[in-house]
Amino acid sequence: MRTNQPTTIRLSEYKVPAHLVDAVDLRFELFDNGARVHSTLTVRRNPESAEEFAPLELDGDSLKLEQVILDGRELMAGNDYDETGAQLVIARVPAQFELTVVTWIEPQNNTRLEGLYKSSGMFCTQCEAEGFRCITYFPDRPDVMARYRTRIEADKASCPVLLSNGNDVDRGDLEGGRHFVTWEDPFPKPSYLFALVAGDLVEKQDTFTTCSGREIDLRIFVEPRNAAKCQHAMDSLKRSMRWDEEVYGREYDLDIFMIVAVDDFNMGAMENKGLNIFNSSCVLASQETATDLAFQRIESIVAHEYFHNWSGNRVTCRDWFQLSLKEGFTVFRDSTFSADMGSPTVKRIEDVTLLRTAQFAEDAGPMAHPVRPASYMEISNFYTLTIYEKGAEVVRMIHTLLGPELFRKGSDLYFERHDGQAVTTDDFVKAMEDASGRDLTQFRLWYDQAGTPVLTVSDVYDSERGVYSLKIQQAIPDTPGQTNKKPQHIPFALGLLGAEGEALPLRLVSTEDAASAPTERVLELTKASHTFEFHGLTQKPVPSLLRHFSAPVRLVYPWSREQLVFLMSHDPDGFNRWDAGQRLAVDVIQSLVDSSGTVDIDSRLVEAYRTLLADRTLDQALVAKMLHLPSEAYLIELADSPDVAAIHRTREQVLSHLATSLRDELVACYHRNMDDGEYEVTPESVARRSLKNTALAWLLMINDNTGRDLALQQLREADNMTDRMGALRALVNSDYAEERSQALADFYEHFQSDPQVVEQWFSVQASSDRAGQLPQIQALLKHPAFDWKNPNKIRSVIGVFAGQNLAAFHNPDGSGYSFLADQVCRLDDSNPQIAARLVAPLTRWKKFAPAYSALMRTALERIRNKAELSADLYEVVHKSLE
Ligand code: ARG
Ligand code: ZN
């Protein structure tokens, strides 16, 4: 904790480490009142470092130092070494030596959940990015890679299971009812990949035979009460292992792969070598307790962490500015995997929704940073949508530009060239260039320039020449510290449609043969302005632009509503069909917001939805997505100076108008999708449940009791959480106050012993403008199931309120803002990472209409004035007030 300004770390000041560590020998003595850590490092001077006589500098945080021994000689504080707050410095060290450091730590009091801590009685670790220094003194940077041997000693009764990275090589009993296990990891790794778990756990076991015929032991460790909730994660793991062999040629390397579920965890999951640690909510699932969305999320997170074994562990990051090297690439890998497991169009829609709603907002806000940032104060603040999602889009664009074969050649070369190394995003791009022969010099700007490019498209049709010209201009907005940006290299996929919806040949020169010309092309934009001519067209086509969302940009084109309706039912690109529907709905809602008062809803929107509801030929998963109106968050993101209350009100009006006009179609849709037999998580049955539950939610917007009765019946009869939650959510968001309270009470009664379900129960209330007004939120914080030490509970109430219940959070009296400020200040003392994440909605204050933004700013200033701000919160709050 500090009040002083934390130091800024800059990429331009990167220096290779002065010392390297070849081996780490760890011995943990775990007790109820703390843990003693004995660490012996085999150190040598780095021949690549210019600083020949550099002192040995080890990082540390919240450690009690007990002993330092260098080559068998005990060192004296002050004389031989200095222990400054965050470092242990030994001024004079030989070229090669062995150093033993003994530290005492208190996992039971560690509420930051970084380093070694306790979660429901079990010991566990989280070391990325800089948690290892909370365990022992160490050069805690990813370019120091060492072999680890770890001996864990603990009470046998309370900690029968003792885990660390690699292979289990020795075990035995000790005096006093204690025992030990020793683990050895043959692969050199950075300290952020170290992991340890000790507790009373049960395991689910399985095996996987790799492509070369090796049998891998797979184990998922959970608390005994969760034993029946591991099957889905295990199946997902096996599918991921197979997929990475088939698509990337990557085989697993150790003999055992373990996953552990932990209740108190700051994020989703962590890819520690051979011992992935997961937030319980990202691994445990059963039909009765997890929604379809949760099943899909678990599959993708299990895949993500598994894929890190190559993209992250075997090839790791040189420094934390390169974080997207592993995260962007791995998100790209997991999203392709999910697309292959389900519906590629739906997966793309989900990814783009997140990107456009949240990453674009980040890119337009005070914390905007490039995919490879140039500086940071607290690296934990840079685990962002930009690093992850935009980073994945950048890799996707390389894939688009190179095509699948050359991309695979590039990834093979990357893994081969850099196996066992700590490298940079530039090394990744270089491998792609070398394997493909393509020049990606300009493309690299995607890594260094922040901000979302805006593409403005205009067109003219020359009927005499039969030529359709498209003019595409790109501009990249200024972001903090960056102005006058250069044009980027952008792959722009498009098609043109004729009056009957036919795909027209795209002839870029008049001599091109119509029969062989493709109907979809990827244009490459490299300049601020381009004009493309398409020849041989007898009428003005309808353009289908930026297909599959081929680049993470804002696209501006003056579509007419007729064109959008046309694309909704004719575009051969499913993604663009969905996008046309979104644009139409956005246009209708926006014009109603602007026209304040008159509620005259364009009948074309109603008819377009009617057509959709009747369409049985289209992929039902796509129909289900198309029926979702653009979210409030997205509408706010698109608006300048948004008036949140007006957007909320208008969107609700449009929804209830649609529901009333389409009542019969909705009832039919509900019944048609009702019986889906045995519960399965296949794209088809997920789509059916989604359609059914969307229809239900809409029907509850009409107060004629049809929806209410269906919801109550569904709540009684549901055999799975998706349907239960669908009915509960619809009731909670309806005007049926009595049914709402009854349903919430019954649900809690039934599921109170299951933390993952209780989290959903909190969220459904916190996100509702009916059940989640501030007094109700405050009551949830006092609920016996709420736990200030559990990030999931904090997120499901406070995070969901500020991030999803926008009308209540942006209450014009400022109460939502001041509530958030209070909670952030409180949490900063126990868990700074969580505090700095929760504050995000306030940091966007400049965007909002003046009445809102003044109050948001006041709330932020109050946080800034708090005594003892963590580095995490300091950076976010100060940068957003600049
Ligand atoms: N590497 C982890 C992943 O798979 C996330 C680690 C996040 N760390 C943090 N300090 N937020 O994405
Ligand atoms: Zn990751």
From TrEMBL:
Swiss-Prot/TrEMBL catalytic activity: Release of an N-terminal amino acid, Xaa-|-Yaa- from a peptide, amide or arylamide. Xaa is preferably Ala, but may be most amino acids including Pro (slow action). When a terminal hydrophobic residue is followed by a prolyl residue, the two may be released as an intact Xaa-Pro dipeptide
Pfam families in UniProt: DUF3458, DUF3458_C, Peptidase_M1, Peptidase_M1_N
Domain Peptidase M1 alanyl aminopeptidase Ig-like fold: residue ranges: 451-557
Cofactors that this protein relies on: Zn(2+)
Domain of life: Bacteria
MF term (GO), any: alanyl aminopeptidase activity
Domain annotation Peptidase M1 membrane alanine aminopeptidase: ranges: 233-443
NCBIfam families registered for this protein in UniProt: pepN_proteo (TIGR02414)
Family: Belongs to the peptidase M1 family.
Name of protein: Aminopeptidase N
Taxon lineage: Bacteria, Pseudomonadati, Pseudomonadota, Gammaproteobacteria, Pseudomonadales
